[in-house]
Write a structure and sequence with these properties.
- This protein is α/β, with parallel strands linked by helices.
- It is built from 14 helices and 14 strands.
- It has three domains: 205 residues, Rossmann fold (3-Layer(aba) Sandwich); 84 residues, Orthogonal Bundle (N-(1-d-carboxylethyl)-l-norvaline Dehydrogenase, domain 2), CATH 1.10.1040.10; 118 residues, Rossmann fold.
- The protein has an eight-stranded mixed β-sheet, sandwiched between helices. A four-stranded parallel β-sheet has the order 10-9-13-14.
- β11 and β12 form a beta hairpin.
- The structure holds nicotinamide-adenine-dinucleotide.
Length: 433
């Protein structure tokens, strides 16, 4: 491929850090990326429709676990705006807007469509646009590309379009943006070259793949791998429960095998905005091809049933001590979807709490990362995890796996505990009520 003037110019802008970079959507995925580009020496503009997030970035206020206030100190060049006319001044843009599922588990692309339509009003020749939101195979070429071309721009000649899936793992202390290899793809070879140039300034290892559809599917496969393996661990827990043994004993022993085994652990269900959601992008898309993805459906069934299993365990544990859920004081430990994050999206703990409240349990929760949650119309505030709270509860239910915070000796005060890390023989310290 000969180097076109547009590519040479883009390369120059990237190499000299004169390129102005834009991030559309300043959430868990977009804000760390915006900061990484600012750290790499670029002038960065975040574009977000949320006035709160725009103000927080401009006032250097933290709103995400991975971006504490100190991270902002070193940044002079990051600014945020809700005004899409800023797009016209930028050279490279990444779109990181949400991609939820509808109630019937169909992809809801309204944020991507809104973002690309707003962006297209100000797009100009020479720009690189990279979609980073997780989505179904074909979105970049079938949904994003036509909007750009409707502006009379030829993708690959006038403007450049790529896809680069997100791999952020909020709260992970080892793997972060720079040291996690980045999958990139372009609609044309030039689009790929521009996308690689942009991301190689913030990520050590770039992994180019053959098409945007491959890149979109890589992300879906990674999350499906997790969902299916977690379902396997959850099903093992259900089977071990019947055998009267601990699934954790089994998994930890199996994990000593140095090859061909990757441990996954059981819990109260699946949470976060990726693993419970993303596999359905794949199965939804494949239905259009007359293919029914059996493993994704089976994994969904097992994982989605786990909150009900937890509630059954709580009911059984209370029943064994002559109590009902109704009017029992039940303290839930951990409502975020995993340890050490604020994020309660899709958290199975919320479903556990909702169902216990529905059965007239006197339910409270403690989560050091989540000050309040709403269940239905009611707001519930986190209580302190203390010896007194443990003593007062009729039953304590440990919901967040791997959360060190709850390893305090207060457990010894518990009269009855249901520990979902051991799904679900009652925890080590059980006192009759
Ligand atoms: N959160 C994660 O850990 C994670 C991990 C991997 C992939 N992803 C994917 O990254 C994408 C973004 O997820 P997130 O967690 O950062 O979402 P988020 O909800 O934290 O942030 C999205 C941001 O986009 C903004 N936004 C919505 N519509 C917009 C529009 N039309 N124009 C401009 N801004 C708009 C919202 O105001 C919000 O600030 C999703 O596709 C998600 O699946 C997220």
């Amino acid at each position: 491929m000969s180097v076109s003037p547009a590519t040479a110019n883009f390369e120059q802008l990237i190499a000299t850090r004169e390129a102005r970079v834009g991030i559309v959507g300043l959430g868990y995925a977009g804000l760390p990326l915006a900061i990484a580009f600012a750290d790499a020496g670029f002038d960065v503009t975040g574009v977000d429709i949320s006035p709160d997030r725009v103000a927080a970035v401009n006032e250097r206020r933290s709103y995400l676990v991975d971006v504490p206030e100190e991270r902002y100190d070193v940044l002079g060049s990051l600014r945020a705006t809700a005004d899409f006319s800023a797009v016209g001044e930028l050279d490279a843009l990444t779109i990181c807007v949400p991609t939820p599922l509808s109630k019937s588990r169909a992809p809801d692309l309204r944020y991507i469509v809104a973002a690309i339509e707003s962006l297209a009003e100000h797009v100009r020749p020479g720009q690189l646009i990279v979609l980073q939101s997780t989505t179904y195979p074909g979105t970049t070429e079938d949904v994003v590309l036509p909007v750009l071309e409707s502006r009379g721009l030829q993708v690959g000649e006038d403007v450049f379009l790529g896809y680069a899936p997100e791999r952020v793992d909020p709260g992970n202390k080892t793997w972060h943006l720079r040291n996690t290899p980045k999958i990139v793809a372009g609609v044309t070879p030039r689009c790929l070259a521009h996308t690689e140039m942009l991301y190689s300034t913030v990520v050590d290892v770039i992994v180019p793949v053959s098409s945007t559809t491959v890149a979109e599917t890589v992300k879906l496969h990674e999350n499906t791998f997790r969902a299916v393996n977690i379902a396997l661990a959850n099903e093992l827990a259900l089977m071990c429960d019947r055998l009267g043994i601990s699934a954790w004993d089994v998994i930890n022993a199996a994990a000593t095998k140095p090859f061909a085994f990757l441990p996954h652990y059981p819990g109260p269900g699946l949470g976060g905005d990726c693993i419970p959601v993303v596999p359905h992008f794949l199965s939804w898309r494949l239905r259009e091809y007359g293919y029914s993805s059996r493993l994704i459906e089976a994994a969904h069934e097992v994982n989605a049933a786990m909150p009900v299993h937890v509630i059954q365990k709580v009911a059984d544990a209370l029943n064994d001590h002559g109590r009902a859920i109704k009017h029992s004081k039940i303290l839930l430990l951990g409502v975020a979807y995993k340890a050490d994050v604020h994020d309660t999206r899709e958290s199975p703990s919320l479903e556990v709490m909702r169902q216990l409240l529905q059965r007239s349990g006197d339910v409270t929760f403690c989560d050091p990362w989540v000050p309040e949650i709403s269940i239905g119309d009611e707001i519930h505030h986190s209580v302190e995890w203390s010896a007194e709270a443990a003593r007062e509860a009729d039953c304590i239910v440990m919901l967040t796996p791997h959360c060190q915070f709850f390893e305090a000796p207060h457990w010894k005060q518990a009269r009855l505990s249901v520990d979902t890390r051991n799904v679900f023989p009652v925890g080590p310290d059980v006192w009759p009520i």
